[in-house]
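Researcher: Batch entry, complex prediction.
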Amino acid sequence: MSSIGKKDIKRIAIANRGEVAVRIIRACEDLGLETLLLHSEVDIGSRAYRLATKKICIGGAPVSESYLNIQANIDGALAGGAHAIHPGFGFLSENADFAQAVVKAGMVFIGPSAASIRLLGDKVSCKGLARRASVPLVPGYEGEDQGIDRLIQEAKKIGFPVIAKAAAGGGGRGMKLLTGELGARELLESAKRESLSAFGSDKVFLEKYLDHAKHIEFQIFADSTGRVIHLGDRECSVQRRHQKIIEEANSVSLTEELRKKMGEDAVRLVQAGNYQGAGTVEFLLQDGEYYFLEVNTRLQVEHPVTEEVMGIDLVKAQILTAMGQFGFSSTQKYVAQGHSIECRIYAENPYMGGMPSTGKLGLVQFPEGPGRRFEYGFEEGDTITSFYDPMIAKVIVWDETRGRCIQKMTEVLKRAIIFGVMTNIPYLIEILNHPEFVDGTMTTRFIEKYFSQNFKEPVMGESEEELLKELRVQVLGSRDFNLASQSSNMNSPWMQSWRNI
Amino acid sequence: MKHLFKWKGEWVPVEYQKLGSELWIYYQGQVFVRPAKANIKSFRPTAEMESTGVILAPMPGKITKLLKAQGDSVAKGDSIVVMEAMKMEYTLQADVSGILEELSCKLNEQVVLGKSLAKIKKNNIEDLKKEL
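Model: Structure tokens for the complex:
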């Protein structure tokens, strides 16, 4: 099949959904490119669907029928006349077979080559590469013998606590922490099941669990000529069940010397992988020692904090690189300015251990302002289903200092309104203002340490409860003339008790 | 903020919306959910529903593993059912000790929010005495 020339990219297919699909659409808009959204049946009710130039339904709601179905995505992209495919993050973004299928179908895959994904994305082969590039590693087991007995034996050899991870995945799914031999079997079986269901492979590997480490990662970018640079670091230590909740750039935990050394290691590793486009090298940092964790051969959820401090657009750079143009100037020096924090908004009940909350969204309102950025995929009337990840939005702030960022984020979150599903906003506000977060010493066990108890619904003051009661009576239609009728909205009889601002 | 609500002589900024059987209210940085109709309590499982011996589906999802069978004796904290939703696995545990009286879900079944999945008959003092 004849291949599309890099310069001929006019329409980009998006093999993703939610806020990242919107993010990609925005970058395409900047470049004057058309977009083709490859969506599942239920995602007709989403912001990306409304914003994309063209859209094609590629299958049913379950991810195996749509977002994880390689053939359906390829067929959809070809039918819609796309010249390139952007995979976003999650789903097929780190699937080498998909990258290969895209190229085979005559389109451009926006990301590294299939060979590069195989080499760097497979955690096992990547560790071999890291070892050869003299990047420090965490002790572990990554053998082919995947029998539960063997895994337990290896875990004992490494020494508990040990963490089991999906060899093919990321994002916390399929990850389990084994604290001792007791219960290890059940946890390993569970890790294998989750891994199989999320990534199509039940291969897991084990590694020593560092119990007071920080999660530090470096944003990497390789342009079409093979030049690799890093665009600074991020800290993502605030994690629950190995899923990041709050991320920031830069980390307050790195000395300039450490930052330089880790950045150089990250670049060296990615260079060895013959890379192209955006990627992330993740490390754990404990007691001044750092250990290589993994490479994510794609855009990260938390890429906006890097964009904010660096003043760049990573998604645009990815697309330009795929077009054979430069993503970043080779003469400009990219230096972080100020600080940036991102909070992930999850549709969940914070008072019930983060149980997913599904339903139709009501009002969705974010308080715009300088240094505030809102990445969201759903608006009023859209439905949050249980088929997909519960992350429904991201809030990103930038300010001169970390302290000002924390304050700004707290105030922004307090003024963000989401009706229809419960969100983790109250939980985020609590975390942001925890003394350990404020002083920046939090480790990856921060949530487990301070927020393992059920997060309690705040007790309301008497007058607050009284106000809510009264408000409810008013809204539900019982007339009361002690309220001024200054409303301009006459659609609803009780709106007369209200004043629009 | 779209609305001001007169409360004790002051205009207080609030936001509200009636969604189905629920009234959603935003006030001073917090979101509150109240039943929209008097006398009808909307179904939202709460912490108080625990320790009844009944395991309810905390979310819509798929049953991926049944770890106990009907008639088994179970201890508080034992894992009974594993379910999957939003690509995460949730292990549902017994909140009381007793006998698994009823297991009302099947492997691979798609269950709705709030469905009763298992019932555990609590051990009472009498039973414990008999066992001794």
